[in-house]
Amino acid sequence: MPRRKCDAIDRMIGQNIRFHRLRRFMSQPQLGAVIDVTQQQIQKYEEGADAIPAIRLFQISRALRVPIAVFFEPVVLVFSS
């Protein structure tokens, strides 16, 4: 089976995972340990290179203590001046 290309949704979900992981001051290896995957796999999820199975997305949302729906919302970064 040919590897599927990542799409905009995969990238958006990955960006949201990274955003919320960093808000929790959690490293990729730490998140990987909590959900029982490698740091490399977390990196692929965050880059949007691999689609995330529903059970993993659920585990990530629990580990980061955020509702699963936040991964499907565009990331809006606000900087104060």
Record the SSE blueprint.
Elements lengths: L7 H16 L4 H8 L3 H9 L6 H11 L17
Helix pairs in contact: 1-3, 2-3
Descriptive notes:
The chain is mostly helical. The protein has one domain: Orthogonal Bundle (434 Repressor (Amino-terminal Domain)). Helix 1 packs across helix 3. The longest helix has 16 residues. It is globular, with a radius of gyration of 13 Å. The model has no long low-confidence stretch (mean pLDDT 89).
Helical content, roughly?
40-55%
- The gross shape turns out to be globular
The total count of helices amounts to 4
The chain-level structural class is mainly alpha
CATH topology heading: 434 Repressor (Amino-terminal Domain)
The rounded Rg comes to 13 Å
| CATH class label | Mainly Alpha
Describe, in short, the structure shown:
The chain is mostly helical and 81 residues long. The chain has helices at 8-23, 28-35, 39-47, 54-64.
List keywords for this structure.
81 residues, mainly alpha, 54% helix
